[in-house]
Amino acid sequence: CKVRRKTIVETKQISKAVIKRLPRYYRYLGELMEDNVERISSNELSKKMHTTASQIRQDLNNFGGFGQQGYGYNVLQLCEEIEKILGIQQHHPCILIGAGNLGKAIARHMSFEQLGFQLIGVFDNAKQVIGGKINGHEILNYALLEEFYKDHRPLMAILCVPQENMEQISDKLYALGIRSFWNFSHYDITLKHPDAIVENVHMNDSLMTLSYKLRLQEQQEDDE
Predict the structure, then answer these.
(1) HEC states along the chain?
(2) Burial status of residue 204 (CB atoms within 10 A of its CB: 0-12, 13-18, 19 or more)
(3) How confident is the model over 155-196, as pLDDT tens digits?
C-alpha cells in the first residue's frame, strides 16, 4: 500500500490548488491532536475547515485516500501522511539573504525545522549588521557567500532584499547552484530562470486583498 501511494505522488500531476490546501489540512489536524481527537470523518473535518467533504476526499484521493468508509480518518496517521507528502520531516538546508527588519523577524520567529528546513546561514552586505547575531546565527558578509556555498551546499535561499538588488542576487545564487527560493520581493525570478522553484510572498497583495474584503463588507452594510 505504501508503494502504491508513493507511485501516485511521483507520477500524478497534482494541481497547485490542492498543494496549497495541504498545509491547512495539516494545521487543523495538529489542532485536533492537541484536543486528543483520534479520528474524524470528512464531514466533521469539512465543517471545521469551512469547505466540503467532497473537496477533502478529492484532495486526499490524489495521494491514495487514507480514509476508511464508516470510520473516517485516523488523525495521527493522516497528519503523518501529509508530513511525508509535504516533505517536512526533512531538514533542507537553507540560507537567508538580507538581515534587515524582515529578515530578522523571519530568522527569529519561523520554526524552520518543523517545516522541512534548517537555517544554516544569514548574509548581509551592511557593515553595521555583519558580525551581529540573529537567533544564534552570526550575520555573515555577503562577499563570503560563494565560499560558504562550497562548504555547506544550501538548497534554498530566503530573499529579503531590496527590489533593485534582486536580479543580481538571484542570478548569483542560481549560478552557484541554488534553484529554490522563498522570495519576499516582487521580482519574478522565473523570467530568467524558468526551472527555479519559487514561492513568492507578496504581503502588499495580501493586505490589498484584505482591504477589498473590508470595502465589500462596508458596501453590503450600507445596502442593508
Answers:
(1) CHHHHHHHHHHCCCCHHHHHHHHHHHHHHHHHHHCCCCEECHHHHHHHHCCCHHHHHHHHHCCCCCCECCCEEEHHHHHHHHHHHHCCCCCEEEEEECCCHHHHHHHHHCCHHHCCEEEEEEEECCCCCCCCEECCEEEEEHHHHHHHHHHHCCCEEEECCCHHHHHHHHHHHHHHCCCEEEECCCCCHHHCCCCCEEEECCHHHHHHHHHHHHHHHHHHHHHC
(2) exposed
(3) 999 999 999 999 999 999 999 999 999 999 999 999 999 999
The mean pLDDT of 17-42, rounded to a whole number, is 92
**Pairing mode of beta strands 92-97, 117-124:** parallel
In the chain, the amino acid numbered 24 is R
Read off the amino acid at residue 167. Answer: E
